[in-house]
Amino acid sequence: MSWIKMRTNLRTDGRVRRVARLCDISKAECIGHLFVFWSLADEHSTDGVLKNWDKESVDDETCPGFFNALAEVEWADTTPDGEVVVPRFSDHNGRSAKTRAQGASRAAKYRARAEAVMESAAPEKPSEPPQEDSGGKIGWYAKLDAMGLDKMQSIQLVKRVFDDHGEQGEQWLTKVTETCKTKRSPIAYLKKIIKNEYGL
Fold it and tell me: What residues does each domain of the chain span?
């Protein structure tokens, strides 16, 4: 059975909101069209180039203007010959991406089971009063999630930033997110910074 990888927080991704507005459709319709688009890519490509598919073909399968809206948020592009290209195709589609996704899911389940075993085997500790979050990390998870970053990336980024910058981590995150808000596609710009700076 064929399947594609889609994030559960896609409906809160700023790019979905932007594409929906550009096409004058609801976010739910946009996510449905994304499913169709990414399914086409999975069925008709092994490298991210959809041979013999052009912008109009994508619009025929989804809605008028959908391809141009995807290009606006860097979810689609074309070759010089006008064939459709799915950027970062190998990150999300194809056999290796699916194997990575399944492996990550299995590893997460294994870690959860291991933690449950360790917790049940550990002696009970006296309860401690709750401590304040000194670095504001928890607030940053919500802010980054609201920008469209998935939870795991948010957690990894905040941890790395505070580990690297210490108390200045909050200032660094504020500066980066404010800069992102001035860009055409804030989430794409943020992900580029994260990848270049931290390899996440």
Answer: 10-92, 137-198
Stretch 50-76: mean pLDDT, rounded? 94
Cβ–Cβ < 8 Å for 186, 15: no
Query: How many Å apart are CA 161 and CA 153, to the nearest integer?
Result: 12
Q: Calculate mean pLDDT across residues 32-57.
A: 89
Separation in Å, CA 131 to CA 134, 136, 151, 188: 8, 12, 22, 35
**Which pairing describes strands 77-78 and 84-85: parallel, antiparallel, or unpaired?**
antiparallel
Residue 6, CB-side half-sphere exposure with 13 Å CA sphere: 18
Does residue 97 register a pLDDT over 50?
A: no
Architecture of domain 10-92: Orthogonal Bundle (1.10)
What is the pLDDT, as a whole number, of residue 166?
80
